[in-house]
Amino acid sequence: MQLIRCPWCGPREEVEFHYGGQAHVAYPDDPAALTDEQWARYVFFRDNPKGAFAERWSHSAGCRRWFNAVRDTRTYRFLAVYKPGEARPEVAS
Amino acid sequence: MRVDGYGRIDRSRTLGFTFDGRSYTGHPGDTLASALLANGVHRIGSSVTLGRPRGISAAWSEDATGLVQVEEPFPEPMLLATTVELVDGLVARGLGGQGRLAEVADTARYDRMHHHVDTLVVGAGPAGLLAARAAARRGERVALLDDRPEPGGSLTGTERIDGRPSREFVADVVAELATHPEVAHLQRTTAFGRYDDGFVLALQHRTDHLGADAPRTLSRQRVHRIRAGRTVIATGAHERPIVFADNDRPGILLAASARDLLHRYGVLAGREVVVFTGDDAAYAAAVDLADAGAAVTVVEARPQAPAHWAGAAADRGIPVLTGSLVAGTEGAPGDGRVSAAVVTGADGARTVLGCDLLAVSGGWNPTAHLFSHVRGTLAYDPALGAFRPGEDLDGVAVVGAANGTLDLAGCLREGASGERPPSADGEPERTPGAIVWRVEGPHDRQFVDVQRDATVADIARAVGAGMRSAEHVKRYTTIGTAHDQGKTSGVLASAITAELLGVPIEDLGTTTFRPPYTPVAFAALAGRERGQLFDPVRTTALHAWHVGAGAVFEDVGQWKRPRYYPRPGEDMEAAVLRECAAVRDGVGILDGSTLGKIDVQGRDAAVLLDRVYTNMMSNLAVGRVRYGVMCGPDGMVIDDGTVLRLAEDRFTVITTTGGAAKILDWLEEWVQTEWPDLRVHLASVTEQWAVFPVVGPRSRHVISRLFADLDVSNDAFGFMCWRDTELDGVPVRVARISFSGELAYEVNVNAWYAPAVWERLLAAGEKHGITPYGTETMHVLRAEKGYPIIGQDTDGTVTPHDLGMAWAVSKKKSDFIGKRSFSRAENTDPLRKQLVGLLPTDARTKIPEGSQVVEFCPDGALPAPPVPMLGHVTSSYRSAALGRPFALALVKGGRQRVGDVVHVPVGDALVPAEITSSVLVDPEGNRRDG
Amino acid sequence: MADTLHRSPVLRHREDAFARLPEGLEIVAEPDVALADLRVPEGAVASATGVVGVALPLEPNTWVARPGGQVVWLGPDEWLVSDADERPEALEAALRAAVAPHDGAAVDVSAQRTAVRLRGRHARALLATGCALDLHPSVFGAGRSAQTTLGLVGVVLLALDDRGEDYRILVRPSFAGYLADWLLDAAVEFEPPGPAAAL
User: Per the database record, which ranges form the SoxA A3 domain (chain B) (predicted)?
Assistant: First the structure.
């Protein structure tokens, strides 16, 4: 049972959180201008790196706020958490 | 046999117990194993595949052999006789490797307890006690766990610490710990798993030792969930057996276990003892067993006995055969107990030594399981002939024998954590051991995992089959997969595999330890979450009324919703037909309180709703209601419902019951992560508002009677409008929303008043025959109108167009979630599955939901297999209004097929059914205004 | 007036069971009061002070007393305001009038949560059977709050004293019956002879 540090509530058990997939995937400015393939890339495709990965998490059983985290997909370790709108921090994995 | 003057059992009291149908006695403080050995019972059971006699091979949880089935006082299979504390009236029998689940319900309580500590110490031996004391003295919050009934670990009581007997040292430390209010000291508590971030799970046996006197109010077993800043692993070491031929007989025991039985329980496990060792510690067993009256011979693998112990042996007349190995054993007829050790001397000569106890020590395996559970790597230590913690982990300290430190002085020093360590008085210095894993002999009688009947021959087969890693050999041979998870066999398996492969053991490594360290009953893991507490049950404010009205409930997510209200003699079909008819002909009332409701507030509320609904919401007038559909970015429907505009800057979004939490989360996700600039706030009001749809042609009479101030005429209060009114000063919101096609008013009120308002509505409707109806009737009524249930008639692959709801998709809005996907080629395919009605042509058969839809060839025969599937039935009911069964189905190109007859396999029959419009009742919509 | 339309407390059917709890445990279903979910953007929190009567607590996981009730931090821009003296719709209206001009929001959620008071010397141990948070008074003393899970139920937990003996548990009414059953079941442990009998 890992602890995940909510930027507001502090460390809580992982079961209080909901995973939201890759972070920093912006909704396209003008979907109508995209080709089918470009649109499909947005809808269906996400990165799956080995190592540091920026993800979205929601403290769903707590303050219900979304935040971002950099996590090492090899070790599951959270390397950093940060609030929406903040830049991805530089962290060594 | 029992020896006077030894043991910490309470000989003033006698306990009666039964084993394999025979009655015996023991004493408080005994385990079942010690009591059996005291009674001369050495054979416990037989092995799982070969049926060989098996006894007790160790004194505690590392025992690989002594499995029993306990029948009384509490039936439980596959327990180790060595860890079952003796209680009066215990009934048990030996097992042949397999147990049997109890046939009576487990009525004991199980629970869990969360702890947060600065320091968790696992193991209350000398190192652990000192580590806990040091932490307590620092003022920390501490938990000290130990799996045995009493603290002290491997201390037998013969040692002297700081000039006093070791048991007094233990008592002093325990007494000091008890003075610290922030120290939790738990015996009979096994830390069985270590996880991320200092999390440790431990199982406490709380009442088993109380036998029939165990208070029923207390949990029998408790899972402690401990979050520790620092974990001190002081779990000691397991003595390691040596593999030789016929090493599996009853009477072959680990040497330290034989000594433990003597000092803890006063049990001398044999009178004629052969001690086979390459390690100093076994001499303490030899000496103590001799002092207790046994005739002892030591078979020493090393060319010379350590000087101190050679002297001690000589003082007692214990022969020490140096440079010798036990290569095999002989067994007694009857119980199969060992009767002789076959010894190969330094000169190669073979000697047969008669014995009734063969005490073995191949050295020590640090109990590093907890260290290994969370990625802690183990490293081979050639001096130990075993693996020990091989790296430093943050927040973890391994001390004492678990760290490979085998002398008491070293354990005290490591446990003291920087405090002045107590002295281990008179402890002889340890000398290097001989690492003997196996003595040459016939492979198929050399047992590596005694419980699994797995031998050196099995490892040889695994290696011969190409296995090259310890993990593969484990799975091929099943070594290490029994109840003991290889506590004593794991290192041997690695060593022998390495030997057979011709590689160094340090290169081969060992298998990874995984939780649980010892078996944990599922009941303990389930805790109190069983029976009525298994899963939360959500009820509406009217639940007591529903129960009183005889409702049959349906689980909708966690909600209990009335499915129908049977009258005496009615089954579901009859009740639902009656309820449906009452609604279409008169008036019915439903508890719709479970519908999800979200308050959307702020000057950008309409902007948000325009982005998340497929239809336009910003042009909805205050006082009006609109149906809407939400899709994911892939264009598939995720929810539907109605939207009430309360003010320019405020809406109430109604979701499905099942979508309530999901849709609020969905909206929050977009608002928080994608559109934080929108000035809009969301709040769940699902439980704030009780909702009672009053439905049917006579609903207007009921509403106007109860809410005299409300003008319920069509002109003043039209379809898809809402109005606020009051009832005795309590605000009430009434909305003309219909999920049945009938004239309907949904009455919303603060749920505090739900039962009162429900009763008033029933009273107001009494003379109109107002009929409470449940979810089944609701489903039939909506299906007759072709209104889909998201999640029943859809499955995440259905667009609004597939549902025939192109009208609900705005063409004016430049974008909304899902819009771009509608133009993807696969979403414009005319052969996509579309929602249609299905009327069985015999007008009698109710087609099961989930049935496949197939089509005959023009010649009237089924196509050749595989028969193409056109789609499937999503909803199916009997209709009171139609006087026949009907169904909804998703069918490829369905809307173009209206009028076609397709077939639905039902059992062995193919039921013909006609494809129709999905709207079967009142397609003109004449009924909604009454 | 409203009082002629009677209210039905959610836990009215559990009151007899609450009355039979062992010594050292007391559970009371508290009377429902007006509750409002208050949203105020960062930078405008002062706009609520007048109506709320106190400054909104900005530290996460805390609560403060206010005239007639309390204010609980629920999120960086969200609070739960209670008022035992005010009608729900009036509380919402007053708060909304104060914060809406500042792009805040207020919603009547009076029936969205109900409160259970848990008191007694066993209170903390009882909660620890189902709550993963550290409830030690040095960490979770008076003025602390948490949105978390108790058993399998989402709750807002408020510490009312510094001894671990007085808590308020806010729970969705639909879950309240289950939670009450869960609390009553947890309390069995503390019936005579009590937990010490296991040692």
Answer: 444-528
Which residues from B are below 8 Å from C190, CB to CB? Answer: 217
Give the domain extent around C52: 2-190
Q: Where are the beta strands (DSSP E) in chain A?
A: 3-6, 10-13, 18-22, 52-58, 66-72, 78-82
Indicate the residue of C8, C13, C175 with minimum beta-carbon distance to B536. Answer: C175
**Does A16 sit within 8 Å of C75, measured CB to CB?**
no
**pLDDT for position B853:** 97
**C196 to chain B, closest Cα gap in Å:** 10
Cα of B158 vs its chain's centroid, Å: 43
Indicate the residue of A2, A32, A44 with minimum beta-carbon distance to B196: A2
CA–CA gap between residue B145 and residue B168 (Å, rounded): 20
Would you state the pLDDT for residue C194? 86
- C134 contact A CB<8A: no
Give the model's confidence band at C1: pLDDT under 50 very low, under 70 low, under 90 confident, else very high. very low
Taking residues C102-128, report their average pLDDT: 98
* Nearest alpha-carbon partner for A83 in C56, C59, B673: B673
For the cut 50, the answer to whether the pLDDT of residue A2 exceeds it is yes
Q: What is the mean pLDDT of residues C95-123?
A: 98
Q: What is the pLDDT of residue A93?
A: 59
Q: Which of B361, B382, B414 is the last residue of a domain?
A: B361
Number of separate domains in chain B? 5
Is the ipTM reported for this complex over the cut 0.95? Answer: yes
Note the pTM of the prediction, 2 decimals: 0.95
Give the C-alpha separation, B882 to B461, whole Å.
72
Find, in chain C, the residue whose alpha carbon is nearest to that of B650: C105
Judge whether residue C2 has pLDDT over 50: no
**Residue C199: its pLDDT value, please?**
64
For residue B281, the SS3 value is: helix
C132 has a chain A CB within 8 A of its CB: yes
Whether B139 and B210 map to the same domain: the answer is yes
Rounded to the nearest angstrom, the minimum Cα separation between C65 and chain B is 23
Write out pLDDT tens, residues C131-143: 999 999 999 999 9
Give the model's confidence band at A38: pLDDT under 50 very low, under 70 low, under 90 confident, else very high.
Answer: very high
Residue B610 within any structural domain of the chain: yes
Q: A65 and C133 in contact by Cβ < 8 A?
A: no
Mean pLDDT of all residues belonging to chain C: 95
List for chain C the helix, strand, coil content (%; round to 5). Answer: 30, 30, 40
CATH number at residue C54: 3.30.1360.120
Residue A12 with chain C: CB contacts under 8 Å: 132-133, 148
Spatial contact of B242 and B433, defined as CB atoms under 8 Å apart:
no
Round to whole Å and give the CA distance between B446 and B440. Answer: 9
C198 pLDDT above the threshold of 80: no
| Architecture label for domain A3-82 | 2-Layer Sandwich (3.30)
pLDDT at residue B580, rounded to an integer: 97
Instruction: Identify which of C2, C100, C136 has the shortest CB distance to residue B729.
Output: C2
Range of the domain at B763: 543-593+689-781
Q: Neighbours of C (≥3 Cβ pairs closer than 8 A)?
A: A, B
SS (H, E, C) B390-417: CCCCCCEEECHHHHCCCCHHHHHHHHCC
Distance CA B704, CA B388 (A): 82
Residues of chain B whose pLDDT is less than 50? none
Interface test with A, best of C139, C145, C148, C155 (most A CBs within 10 A): C148
Interface check C61 vs A, CB under 8 A: yes
Identify whether C195 is part of a domain.
Answer: no
Specify if B7 maps to a domain: no
Most C-contacting residue of B207, B217, B728 (CB-CB within 10 A), to test interface: B217
Name which of B665, B819, B821 is nearest A60 (Cβ-Cβ). B665
Q: Which two three-digit tokens encode residue B829?
A: 């395919």
Instruction: Identify the chains in contact with A, defined as 3+ C-beta pairs within 8 A.
Output: B, C
